[in-house]
Design brief:
Elements (H helix, E strand, L loop, with lengths): L5 H10 L2 H6 L5 E3 L2 E4 L11 E4 L4 E4 L5 E2 L1 H9 L3 H12 L16 H18 L5 H9 L4 H7 L2 E3 L5 H8 L4 H6 L3 E4 L2 E4 L4 E7 L5 E7 L10 E3 L15 H11 L2 E4 L2 H9 L5 E3 L7 H10 L3 E3 L5 H15 L5 E3 L8 H8 L1 H9 L2 E2 H8 L9 H14 L5 H15 L3 H12 L5 H9 L6 H13 L3 H10 L6 H17 L4 H8 L3 H13 L7 H29 L3 H17 L1
Parallel strand pairs: 12-13, 12-14, 14-15
Antiparallel strand pairs: 1-2, 2-3, 3-4, 4-5, 6-9, 7-8, 9-10, 10-11, 15-16
């Protein structure tokens, strides 16, 4: 895993103007000393994202997302911290020096290490004499050595427990291997999960190997064609789009993303030179996968298998994507089951032409709704029109108007009747804006939390406030606040100063702390930094802590039966009350 020195990270952040970097992604407009934009991290309709050139920070008042230039790139590009640094360095022309060891800890570090080792083991196998049959199979399917290396495709050999032994020799536990789906245990016997299969690594959005798809290649008939790693703590199918990490740059360049059904489809298309392709990890898109596609801000082309299941999946996924006002298009490949078969029968040029002339999803849906209907039959026509009306519920006003006009003209139906039908159908669908508002309702912060938030915000601005915190307070009630305060104090001790933008770079690998920092930045964006304000907040916390202590003493007095101890507690309580 890549390693970048902290000095280099700070040097890149110093040279990268956050306004210039975010301008590559969003349309920024000046507003006073800052810049504003529509926030890409929630369903925003008016500019709520603020970018400060002076502080080199961004913040959204609505969804409470905030941070420095690296945080923005991580969230927008769906990449890890190291990848975000690389992207920013590349944008400013910084010659980045990357080492070979990781300075950053991960909650599942060992899991990733094991999966990375397994991937390298399988890849090494395919280039041995035992991997010749697998290589020949892939060559027949148009997958050469370059593509094998691009996707790190390997092979699980005909061996019972080689991988298991290699990993346990490296001191990884058997339970860990079983949990990750690489080994199975039956009574006293342990064996590798995958054997005699071509192994396709599955990477998460950051490019880390989290699972595998194993495919038969010797024509076996008594086993499943494909076998996937089971879901684990690091492998959730709904959070992953196969090939996303590799395809991201090409998607930006081509200004469109092609969604296919299987990972072999994605590999085959990539082998044919079509790199802007991702594959589903199941039949239906999850909310998390849709969020990833939304952030790409490019047309989405659904090119699923040309069978009845693929057709239904196209409709289901298209309907779901349509709810988010995205540009959705469809390619249905005639006379071929999937893209691989289509390329072999019709050629690459024909496939590219299909992609270039992909059908608008709504046009596709209107045609799909005619399936199995005789529109010369009155009953079928009524059903068709009602289905069309339901289909445009989520569309914009112009689309609704155009579809109603077309249906009215094609079938000689009064447009006003169609509009009335549309109005009736909309009554049963809750408006999207109301849903968004509901999500944004947050509990009102207490006096304690407001004061703690301001104290931590001050501490990230200047070493002076860290010193006062240590001398006057030194403690918070909540775990998140204590953890962040401890990190701030440690950072200041090591660096002998603190800068909020650099501090964010330092704590970014710890996602839970980063999210908490984002909330604090959002809550205090307009806070005036002053000694008076800081001390006032410390007084509030001290008073609350003492009140909590008073309540605790009262409970102890109530439950204490030893007279001397009870008098001792009462004296302590009296003195504490005087202080308050």
């Amino acid at each position: 895993m890549a390693y970048i020195k902290e000095e280099e990270i700070n040097a890149i952040r110093d040279q990268a103007d956050i306004v210039d970097i975010i301008s590559n992604y969003l349309s920024l407009k000046p507003k006073g000393r800052n810049y504003v934009a529509v926030c890409p991290f929630h369903d925003d309709h008016s500019p709520s994202l603020v970018v400060s050139k002076e502080r080199q920070m961004f913040n959204c008042f609505t969804c409470r997302t905030g941070g420095n230039v690296f945080t923005f790139v991580m969230k927008y590009e769906n990449v890890g911290f190291i990848e975000a640094i690389k992207i920013v360095a590349d944008k400013i022309g910084y010659n980045l020096n990357i080492g070979n060891l990781s300075d950053f800890t991960s909650q599942n570090k060992e899991d990733y290490e094991i999966m990375d080792f397994a991937q390298k083991y399988y890849l090494n196998n395919i280039f041995t004499k035992d991997g010749i049959a697998a290589r020949k199979y892939l060559e027949k399917r148009g997958i050469d050595e370059a593509i094998i290396k691009e996707f790190n495709i390997g092979v699980a050999l005909d061996s019972k427990d080689t991988l298991y032994k290699l990993l346990t020799n490296k001191k990884y536990s058997l339970d860990k291997l079983v949990n990750l789906g690489l080994a199975n245990k039956f009574d006293a016997n342990v064996y590798d999960t995958f054997s005699k299969r071509i192994m396709i690594p599955i990477e998460n959005l950051k490019g880390q190997v989290v699972g595998f798809t194993g495919r038969i290649y010797n024509g076996e008939v008594d086993t499943a064609k494909y076998m996937n790693t089971k879901e684990t703590e690091i492998f959730k199918k709904g959070n992953i789009l196969f090939n996303y990490h590799n395809a991201r740059q090409s998607i930006r360049e081509e200004k469109k993303v092609i969604v296919v059904e299987g990972n072999m489809d994605a590999i085959k298309l990539s082998a044919s030179g079509i790199k802007n392709v991702v594959a589903l990890m199941g039949v239906a898109l999850s909310k998390e996968q849709i969020d990833v596609l939304k952030k790409l801000k490019v047309p989405i082309i659904l090119m699923l298998d040309n069978d009845s299941a693929g057709l239904e999946a196209t409709v289901k996924n298209g309907d779901e994507l349509q709810k988010y006002d995205l540009d959705i298009r469809v390619v249905r490949l005639t006379d071929a089951k999937d893209p691989d078969e289509y390329i072999r029968s019709k050629g690459l040029a024909a496939l590219k032409d299909n992609i270039e002339h992909a059908t608008n999803y709504l046009d596709f849906k209107l045609d799909y709704l005619k399936k199995d209907k005789n529109l010369n039959n009155m009953e079928d026509l009524i059903h068709y029109v009602k289905d069309v009306i339901l289909s445009i519920n989520a569309a914009d006003d112009l689309t609704k108007e155009l579809v109603i006009s077309k249906i009215s003209k094609d079938y000689e139906i009064d447009a006003e009747i169609l509009k009335q039908e549309l109005k009736s159908s909309l009554g049963s669908v809750p408006p999207k804006k109301e849903e968004v508002k509901k999500e944004q309702i947050r509990p009102k912060p207490t006096k304690y939390h407001l004061a703690a938030s301001k104290i931590l915000y001050h501490m990230m601005q200047d070493s002076l406030y860290i010193s006062i915190y240590k001398n006057r307070l030194g403690y918070f009630k909540e775990k998140d606040e204590r953890t962040l305060a401890s990190e701030i104090v440690y950072y200041n001790t090591v660096h002998n100063n603190i800068n909020i933008a650099d501090f964010i770079s330092y704590i970014t690998p710890e996602e839970n702390i980063t999210n908490f920092v984002s909330e604090i930045i959002s809550e205090n964006n307009n806070t005036v930094i002053s000694l008076e304000e800081f001390n006032s907040c410390v007084d509030v916390i001290l008073k609350i802590l003492k009140k909590d202590e008073i309540q605790e003493l009262k409970e102890k007095i109530k439950n204490e039966f030893d007279v001397n101890k009870k008098l001792e507690l009462i004296t302590k309580l009296t003195n504490l009350k005087k202080e308050v």
